[in-house]
Write a structure and sequence with these properties.
InterPro entries: CBASS_pafABC_assoc_protein, WCX_dom, WYL_dom
Domain WYL: 140-216
Distance between the termini: 77 Å
Structural class: alpha+beta
Number of helices: 11
Domain WCX: 248-322
């Protein structure tokens, strides 16, 4: 082991084996070096010079004064991330359902290498999140991001939500596996899922696609010029649960206690007037299943007044739900 190799190993020792709570002595360092190469002729002064050279280069090695005959101790603490910052990142990765088990394990292992081995052992998240064992979502996200930056289309197959095969435990592909070609506008995060928002080039309309249902994505390499597109300013305000739908003017009668939920979704500048003990809310929204699900989640605190077609649809949906539970027992 020559001087240059030894200096690199000294740095690696302080990076991986020491921190504020785990200082080491020169004897510990010499023992570590002896596992790598011959140190029989290595003097402590040479190791001290290595430590000083690292400090002079900007790799800070701290030490404490010798006390009561105890050996002097050294450690490295100036790291890119504090341990609590790494812990938050690990928790975020573990909590994200769209990141599969295998990818989660790889990322956590990489984050653990950004601190000492003793500290890395504490980076075990207590969060439990159901995940798929394997997945391609991070690769889809990367291709979508690059397609947006390079102003190129993205092509993929898309999984349906009906036709589940109980044997294979899979859903079929939509359009019999025909590839979608989409001019991507945005990548959006909503309800713990990534969504690709873009123009479906087969119909020329903006559509939302859940990234976890995308299969076999690839960037379209052709000579077709695609201008950068922008979403309408009120796109997300009108969209509910990322469903597409036709814009309509909506009038709701709501209880006062649900107003914070209304303001969170529609903004505090939404049109509102008091009507007795309730409030009338007027706004435009893309009417879709997602919008209906949102209204149903608010229960009896919200009543649809207009349009009549939506009110009728709500009544029919609620009656159908009540019919499911009309029987006293399922047996």
């Amino acid at each position: 082991m020559n001087n240059r190799e030894r200096l690199l190993e000294v740095r690696r020792f302080f990076e991986r084996h020491t921190d504020d709570n785990h200082p080491k002595t020169l004897e510990d360092l010499l023992e570590y070096l002896s596992t790598i190469g011959d140190t029989s002729k290595l003097a402590k002064k040479s190791v001290k010079d290595d430590i000083q050279a690292l400090t002079d280069s900007g790799f800070e090695v701290q030490d404490e004064l010798e006390k009561n005959g105890l050996a002097k101790k050294y450690w490295h603490s100036a790291r890119l991330f504090e341990i609590h910052e790494l812990r938050m990142m690990v928790d975020a990765i573990v909590a994200a359902k769209f990141i599969s088990e295998d990818v989660t394990e790889r990322i956590v292992e990489k984050l653990q290498k950004l601190t000492s081995i003793p500290e890395a052992e504490t980076l075990q998240s207590i969060i439990k999140t159901p995940k798929k064992k394997h997945g391609q979502i991070p690769y889809h996200i990367d291709r979508i991001q690059r397609a947006i930056q390079e102003q190129k289309a993205i092509s993929f197959q898309y999984t349906d939500v009906v036709g589940f095969d109980t044997t294979k435990r899979t859903f079929p592909l939509r359009r019999d596996g025909e590839r979608y070609v989409v001019n991507p506008i945005d990548l959006h995060w909503n309800h713990e899922q990534y969504y690709l928002i873009g123009i479906d080039e087969s119909i020329g309309e903006i559509r939302n696609y859940r990234v976890d249902r995308i299969v076999n994505s690839e960037i379209v390499e052709d000579d077709t010029p695609r201008m950068k597109q922008h979403l309408p300013d009120d796109y997300f305000q009108k969209s509910f649960n990322m469903y597409n739908g036709l814009d309509e003017e909506i009038v709701l009668a709501v209880d006062e206690r649900v107003l914070p939920v209304i303001f969170d979704k529609l903004g505090e500048d939404v049109s509102i007037t008091q009507d007795g003990d309730r409030f009338l809310i007027r706004f435009d929204a893309a009417v879709s299943d997602g919008f209906v699900f949102w209204l149903l989640s608010l229960g009896t605190q919200v009543e649809v007044l207009e349009p009549v077609t939506l009110r009728d649809h709500m009544r029919e949906t609620i009656e159908a739900m009540a019919g499911r539970y009309a029987k006293a027992s399922i047996h």
